[in-house]
């Protein structure tokens, strides 16, 4: 029995690296405006920002043009990527390109050298290369075909890191572990797991979202070794009782800790079916009338008997789903029922409607 319970707890546990992040060890978004050339007439129309960018690019190449440029083979795009932590000069990044004008497709285009800047305005990477959109867009004579999204493209290894972000991890004397899902119980479990592994009270919970860890003397200058040891620790994260409802798609997700108090549910389905049967009215040839099409409409209204289901206090998620399915509700009806139960104060969980 003890072995069975231990295995059940391990099955619910997660690695520490999947529960927390380390302060300072994160990615940084980069973006830049660039030009895609080589399009087959599917680029921007006479847009001012595309024309201005073209004149600036040509000016840097020693070509001076004062008139407005109208080139259907060029499109203005926003180039975005994320600079990962500890990225070094010369590292390559994947970039995403999104059309900002009225280009029809980026298929077959090539991105001209584009600097990518961070939030501080400094250039951290430079991007260039041939695009891949993973689809196509074609049309003519009033017909067309499209696969995927032709105005968004990617370039694998399309950016080269030119500037590093200095962060000396091994010089840190303490670390801050930030919980992905803040929770007091989970924070205390992390503290017990770390102190148990290190044998001393080096970890302390600051609040529900952060745990401070002092670097032991044996790991001074070897913080990477310390993190390697800690990130594999097994921690069982605790979760809030929550029900997430998406009214747009009819999707409902409920956590395992959802409980309901004693409540009775009554549900009745009202179904209205209207059918139309076109009939052709053909008059006699001697009557001098005209042929007409008439519709014979029929409407049937049915209502199922309402059923009352009682749920006892402390009902689990499994019992709640079985009870609601037993009523025969649809996802849309289930959303309304959950909202009503929450309003009645019988749903012991947070109800989040998206």
Automatic annotation (TrEMBL):
GO biological process terms on file: bacterial-type flagellum-dependent cell motility
Keywords (A to Z) from UniProt: Bacterial flagellum, Cell projection, Cilium, Flagellum, Signal
Keyword Signal on entry: yes
Pfam short name (any one): FlgI
Keyword hit for Acetylation: no
Record-level Gene Ontology MF annotations: structural molecule activity
Main location: other
Assigned GO CC terms: bacterial-type flagellum basal body, distal rod, P ring; outer membrane-bounded periplasmic space
Cellular localization per UniProt: Bacterial flagellum basal body
Protein family: Belongs to the FlgI family.
NCBIfam families according to UniProt: PRK05303.1
Functional summary from the UniProt entry: Assembles around the rod to form the L-ring and probably protects the motor/basal body from shearing forces during rotation.
Subunit and interaction comment: The basal body constitutes a major portion of the flagellar organelle and consists of four rings (L,P,S, and M) mounted on a central rod.
The protein, known as: Flagellar P-ring protein
Organism: Magnetofaba australis IT-1
């Amino acid at each position: 029995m003890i072995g069975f319970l231990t295995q059940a707890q391990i099955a619910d546990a997660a690695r520490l690296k999947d529960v927390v992040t380390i302060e300072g060890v994160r990615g940084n978004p980069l973006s830049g405006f660039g030009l895609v050339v080589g399009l087959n007439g599917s680029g921007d129309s006479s847009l001012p920002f595309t024309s201005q960018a073209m004149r600036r690019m040509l000016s840097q190449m020693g070509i001076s043009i004062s008139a407005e440029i109208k080139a259907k083979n060029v499109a203005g795009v926003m180039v975005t990527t994320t600079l990962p932590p500890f990225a070094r000069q010369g590292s390559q990044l994947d970039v995403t390109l999104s059309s900002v004008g009225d280009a029809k497709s980026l298929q077959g285009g090539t991105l001209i050298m584009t600097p990518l800047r961070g939030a501080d305005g400094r250039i951290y990477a430079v991007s260039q290369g041939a695009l891949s959109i993973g689809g196509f867009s074609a049309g003519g004579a009033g017909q067309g075909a499209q696969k995927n999204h032709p105005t968004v493209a990617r370039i694998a290894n399309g950016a080269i890191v030119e500037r590093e972000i200095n962060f000396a991890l091994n010089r840190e004397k303490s670390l801050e572990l930030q919980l992905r899902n803040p929770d007091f119980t989970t924070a205390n479990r992390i503290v017990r797991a770390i102190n148990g592994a290190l044998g001393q009270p080096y970890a302390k919970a600051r609040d529900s979202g952060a745990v401070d860890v002092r670097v032991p003397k044996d790991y001074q200058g070897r913080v990477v070794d310390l993190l390697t040891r800690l990130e594999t620790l097994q921690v069982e994260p605790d979760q809030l009782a929550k029900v997430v409802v998406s009214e747009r798609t009819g999707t409902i997700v409920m956590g395992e800790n959802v409980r309901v108090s004693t409540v009775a549910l009554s549900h009745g389905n009202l179904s209205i079916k209207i059918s139309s049967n076109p009939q052709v009215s053909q008059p006699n040839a001697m009557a001098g009338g005209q042929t007409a099409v008439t519709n014979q409409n029929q409407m049937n209204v049915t209502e199922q008997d309402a059923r009352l289901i009682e749920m006892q206090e402390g009902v689990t998620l499994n019992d709640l789903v079985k009870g609601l399915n037993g009523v025969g509700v649809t996802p849309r009806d289930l959303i309304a029922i959950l909202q009503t139960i929450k309003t009645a104060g019988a749903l012991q969980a947070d109800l989040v409607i998206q």
